[in-house]
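re: ur question from the group chat, yeah i did fold both. here u go
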Amino acid sequence: MTTRRTFLKLVGGGVILAAAGATWVATRTPATARDPWLEAAEPPTGERASDVRRFALSYAILAPNPHNMQPWIADLSEPDAVRLYCDPARKLPETDPYDRQTVIGLGCFSELLAMAANAAGYSVDVIPFPEGEPQPRLDERPVARFVFRKDEDAAVDPLFRHVTDRRTNREAFDTARPVANESLERMLQSVRSSDAGFTNDEKRVADLREFSWSAMEVELYTPRVYQESVDVMRVGSREMDRNPDGIAVDGPMIELLAAAGLISHKDLADVSSITFEQGLPLIRVSFETAMAFAWMSTAGNTRRDQLAAGRDYIRLHLAATGEGLALQPFSQALQEYPEMAGHYAAIRKKLAIDDGATLQMFVRLGYGSSIEPSPRWPYDSRIEHA
């Protein structure tokens, strides 16, 4: 276990800096984990150029999704079509026990796929859950079927230009820069089928900051729930390259700790450890610096509602990127496990969500620093029956 003494010795400069080669370690970045973002931004060649489905998939895999588990599997066995499935090994049964958030992530994937196809001169028919809606969990049935048709009238969505610039930003936001109503109103215009709202009122934002942090504490101090997150943390650039999914834990200090053997998944899971104690303020700063909040709800909570909410959410996020805004989902209070029930009910009241409606997404907004994108598996690694 990392002790306070060894941690402070490292921070202070001591033995580790000389032994580990501090300059190299502190500037180390993943070698391959972020390559899919670069590939999508390049002109298509090879199979990406000859098969529009692959071109579209190279963008679709950049979609935001819970814990960055990238739960998509694309079946290309049918000409001019893609069947989308959920990889059962990439579900999150503790934080997402009914797969609602997973379906939202697959909805984001669906919208980016359709956008990319349009940009290549194709229209796409999106058929949600063509073999029925699986309840209460997703199963082996397809989530969606996409049919591609060459279309000279296909229009490029203005939001598409922001796909490779979109980030989920967990850093501190600039508390000296308020978010203007006009930016938030333009952002919400991108939403097509969900109900959406926002607030930048100082008093209400302050209340939602504290409330959101209290929901985060429930997650952190519910052992089985927090352990689910720890299990998919990728600590340092080497782990990120080996497994370009999950929750990236990186940065110069993390590289130093990892190289010195002073950080482990066991330490991260132990809420009494110095590793957890030192990391807690780094988590909390994102809650303390939220400058506005936005949310989306749907009248029902069918699988089709969830998929449509995902399609709307990625549009909202791309619109925020176009406004120069940083965005981060605060999903804790929306999670459906027993210990979160009080917060789940309370946030609906705070946001005046109608009875019977479902709060699908809740995000913080502000102006943040430039950050690197999340790791991704290459698009062709998620294809079956090509």
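okk and heres the other one u asked abt
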Amino acid sequence: MRTRTGDSLLALLKAAQHLTSLHVREALLRSFCVGVQRALHADRCELLILGVGLDHRRLKSVGWCDRAAAGGDWDDTVDGMPGGAQDGFLARAVDNGVNVTRVHDTHGWRMAFPVMHAGRVRWMLDVYATTAIAAVTVDGVRAYVHCFERLMAHWDYANLDTLTGLLNRKTFDEQFDQLIAVAERARRQDGERREATELPSPAWLGIVDIDHFKHINDTWGHLFGDEVLIRLADCMRNAFRSSDKLFRFGGEEFVVMLRNVSAETVKCIFERFRVAVETHDFPQVGTVTCSIGFSQVDDRLPPAELLGRADSALYYGKEHGRNCVWAYEDLVAAGELVSTAATSSAQQDADQYF
């Protein structure tokens, strides 16, 4: 006779099998959390991520699913929504160094499963259940967590830059296709909108380049140059949203993909990041600055030209003082640039992909 415990373990096994078929990071995170919620019939499961680098103790919600939703549907956490940073239970779970932390109150059971990455806790799986979960089922969840940890390690090895931990150039093509699709949907909604509907926010592509990076390497050596790259990547993770795509595109050049950001807000976002870099104290080197060029994504243009537009704005900034943020559209409107694709280094990089 099948028991509830047996059903839960079988469901965890099937969920682990499903995880092995996924290749998109967001899908892995979502399915990992939903798999536990459905297998345990939990009231709610939430996945939280711990900060790295400059803010390594901050917990931020990635998303959650609950039994009240249709079949445990996943909800992404809105950026800026507070996570578990002030949650004493989760703080203890991070510090305990054990496989699971449990507490029981009048509402039921709460369990926190740490998820490791590169030798440290990277995520926390927070589970709420009205009824107690059998010990063997808890062990099954831990085995499921270990499966997820190995899959994420393989994903990171294939898709992340080994020095900075940002997305690498190999993943750029796939993510760019998704960004184009977002821009196309926004344009069609804009064309079909009614007066009462809200205007869709566009997508943006930005290129970040460290000012005088060759001088940094020549003066302090490549070890300190690498430290600058690592610290700048940390600044990026803290300045941009978790849903934004951040790439190390090559050398001292980085690419940022933004979705659903209004034209009135986008320059402020990039400017905030520029200031964060300028005011950060880089070891030995001291002050480091960066130049940024960005452009709105238009799905009707070739990808290479879209990247070239942001690149044109970047190199305009390089030629006009550095440590600045320029929008391609603003420069064209002011007559400083003509509406043609750039032919600089980032343009050549794009030609290798498209």
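fwiw on the second one: The two ends are 57 Å apart (CA to CA). The chain has two domains: 4-156, 169-353. idk if thats what u expected
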